[in-house]
Amino acid sequence: MANVQSILDEKGSKVFSISADDSLSHALLKLTEHKIGALMVLDEERNIKGILSERDIIRHFSRKLEHLNTASIPVSEYMTTAVTYVNPTQSLEDCLQLMTAGHFRHLPVVDDGKLVGMISIGDVVKLSLKERDFQIGELEQYITSPY
Questions:
Q1: CB environment 12-41: b (16+ within 10 A), e (fewer)
Q2: 138-142: which pairs have CB atoms within 8 A and are 24 or more residues apart?
Q3: What number is the average pLDDT over the span 72-92?
């Protein structure tokens, strides 16, 4: 059965990050450059301080339209500090439940207190569908087998 580690094995464990003191404009450039939806906010020792997602930025801009000078806004004003994360052995079902309940699309993966990756709702759904298709194929083969 597939788990979080299965996703990391397939996509890799590279995590894009930023510091809380960086500007929002720098964060927007990183999101665009790497074609990702969220950045981990880490301190100098690579400890998790928060997560900054596209939704965080949009949610805050919709309330503060006068603050469009992203170069002067620190990431710390927009990041989510209560970060929900998973470990590599958690199931895809656990991830889907967390993401659905929390209304978020990205989960950091932490193992022994160390950030080891990041998964998205797309990663989880993709592998869940792949696993389901495999199981259906196995069942079809079993049903149609002459033995």
A1: ebebebbebebbbebbeebbeeeebbbbbb
A2: none
A3: 92
**24 with 141: CB under 8 angstroms?**
no
Q: What is the pTM of this model?
A: 0.80
- What the chain holds in terms of domains, given with CATH numbers, is 4-144 (3.10.580.10)
Q: Tokens 């928060």 — which residue? A: 50
pLDDT-based confidence at residue 108 (cuts at 50, 70, 90) = very high
What are the CA-CA distances from residue 107 to residues 13, 53, 55, 79, 126 (Å)? Answer: 12, 11, 14, 14, 15
Dihedral angle, C-alpha 119, 45, 34, 120, nearest 10 °:
10
Which tokens in the block code for residue 10?
A: 């397939």
**pLDDT, position 70:** 73
* Predicted confidence (pLDDT) per residue in 46-68, tens digit: 899 999 999 988 887 776 665 56
